[in-house]
Amino acid sequence: MDRLDAFKSIAAQAGRGELAFPTNVAASVKLQQALSDPDCHTDTAAKLVQADPLLAARAVAIANSVAYNRSGNEIAGVRQAVQRLGVRTLQSLVAALIVRQLGSQIKDPGLQAMAKQLWEHTAHVAALAQVIARRVTHVDPDTAMFAGIVHEVGGFYMLSCADSDPSIMQGEPEEWVEHGEAQIGRGVLNKLIIPEAVMQAVEAMWDGLRALPPETLGDTLLLANDLAPVPSPLHSRPGATSPQAARTIDFAIGDGTLNAILTESAAEVHSLTTVLML
After folding, report:
1. Degrees (nearest 5) of the Cα angle 82, 84, 89?
2. What sequence ranges are listed for the domain HDOD (predicted)?
3. Does the structure show a pLDDT above 90 at 147?
């Protein structure tokens, strides 16, 4: 199938909600839907997490990370981890699991390499977004991390679909940006019941318009994306800031600067990135 025709076909299916998830991904999507229920309380969330050993291990690990354990008191139980993290952070971990599962289904070596780099990029963006939200823009940090985790989920879905014909992903990155990214991404995000605020932030990334100094969740996500040391392999936007050029981004924040805050928060960013990469 022609590359553009493939994008358009999958985009049309995504728009209709006709998404083909592997069995393990479908199970995680159901878990995400359960956690999205407003009546899902901590005890229920803990039971759901305990049913998935991998998710349980990651929940404990992130609860003990520098970003969530500033007192230095380590915990070993899932229930304690859920209490410390809250349901919204658990949703982020489940979203991360879904994204990783989509990548793990890929058999083609070239697409596997793209999925690996895309996840490294995603983990860095999520960790940076959490810190930037807390220290700079003062939007909700957990929501910012969640937005960072899901901002490339459409790309992961596309890579998994391309496994039967890897040539689909071998053209110019701009073709993916123009004909697949927003359409497919929006369909996958809708399927995962992503909150409207997060949807708007991801859509702001597709528009590529970021204010400095940043103010909104969308600005937070865009700045984190620019600052991520590992770029997305799926596209290089016209006018996008390279990781090298992004190091020159700085502006005053109160009595400090962005670069000073990022230096102070380096351990937190590294801790979160490490946990997400597990």
Report:
1. 65
2. 21-208
3. yes
Q: What is the DSSP string of 202-260?
A: HHHHHHT---SS--SHHHHHHHHHHH-SS--SS---TTPPPHHHHTT---EETTEEHHH
pLDDT digits (tens, 9 = 90+) for 161-181: 888 888 888 877 778 888 788
The whole-angstrom separation of Cα 95 and Cα 59 is 12
Which residue's entry shows tokens 């992130």?
62
14: helix, strand or coil: helix
Q: The domain that contains 173 carries what CATH number?
A: 1.10.3210.10
Task: Break the chain down into helix, strand, coil percent, rounded to 5.
Answer: 70, 0, 30
Query: 3-class SS at 138?
Result: coil
d(C-alpha 48, C-alpha 56), whole Å: 9
**What are the Cα distances from residue 72, in Å, to 65, 170, 265?**
9, 47, 16
CA distance between the termini of the chain: 35
For residue 164, is it left (φ>0), alpha (ψ between -120 and 50) or beta?
alpha
Structurally, the chain folds into a number of domains equal to 1
What domain range includes position 45?
3-277
243-277 pLDDT, tens digit each: 555 667 888 998 889 999 999 999 999 998 988 88
- 181 in Cβ contact with 235 (< 8 Å): yes
The answer to whether the CB of 113 falls within 8 A of the CB of 133 is no
Q: How far, CA to CA in Å, does 253 sit from each of 15, 140, 212, 265, 267?
A: 41, 18, 11, 14, 20
pTM: 0.85
